[in-house]
Design goal:
The protein is 53% helix and 0% strand. It is an all-alpha fold. It has one domain (3-73): ACP-like (Non-ribosomal Peptide Synthetase Peptidyl Carrier Protein, Chain A). Helix 1 (3-13) crosses helix 4 (64-73).
Length: 79
Amino acid sequence: MTRIEALKWIADIFEEPADRITPDTPRSDIQAWDSLGVLTLMADFDQTFGIILSDEEIQCMKGVNDILEILRTNGKLSE
């Protein structure tokens, strides 16, 4: 997955326009990134990529770049 594809995937999860999501977008700027949004993100990480997030990874996510880093760390993001 490319970075552009990953950003679109993140936008789709949080039902945001793709042009509003950048690596620098903080969690606070994404209205749907609430407790239900976290559950949706966790489920999609598992279903789409086979990535099970730890509690620490979930709590450390402060913005879009953190999601991209998880994809990168797990070999799912090509740059």
